[in-house]
Amino acid sequence: MHAPRHLILCVVHCVLCICFAPLCGRGASPVKMFAGVGSEDITPEWPVRRAFGNRPPIQQRYDRVEAKALALSDGKQPVVLVTADIGYFSLSLSQEIHKRVRRLGLEPRQVVLNASHSHSGPAVSPVLDVLEEDQIDRRYQEHFISRVVRAIESSLQDLQPAQLSTAEAECEVCINKRLEGRMEPNPAGPMDRRGRLLIVRAAKTEVLRAVLFLYGCHPSDQNDEAFGADFFGFAREELECRNPGVARLSAQGTGGDARVDHRDVSGKKFF
Length: 271
Fold this sequence. Notes:
By secondary structure, this protein is an alpha+beta fold. It contains 4 helices and 11 strands. Helix 2 (91-100) links the parallel strand 3 (78-84) and strand 4 (111-115).
């Protein structure tokens, strides 16, 4: 059974209260830096398979799925961080993206690809997303790649003088989900409960331009029959409500055996 939306929103509220409310950060960049953002809606416009589900193609959505890019530069060489609401970036998918952005002057080492691992994201890679190679919708895969490249290009075109700072706090909304190999709550198991932010402000006015937040937790608690970004998407929406016009990027951390802590009354089983 999957967590109802109101529970996920409660989790998101905790994350926001702990991590986002101050948006003050620390360690503002001492050297002249530049930052730019790009964003693309990658919600399927026709029926495709959902990541990891190996079910028939669907088109329903409970939320949009997105690919975003944050370009950072010291004025000499840019680095671009890409976040996307998909299961994972396979080697072949990554190589194709790296190949296409060479025309922008970017080497593979300058482009970091981070998949949210959303279990309700669209399938874009074989083997893990689906069982058989021919189950991948190549038309959608091409659509996805082109949108990611477009987001990267937009972020480079948007480079402007910026102040960079970071913030970090504990956020106790995840729990280890493996107990002696079983899918059961394991409060003593390893997990990373740090919520980490990279905050981008305009260099002169200090106006907030973008926030990148990283948290290690499986986004696997929402609808099996519709596309969406799970709690990452809800967090981005809430941040937009509190800070209209600010670019919001979410990155997956070390969330391998962590999931949202929504246990039944016994505390020994997940809902």
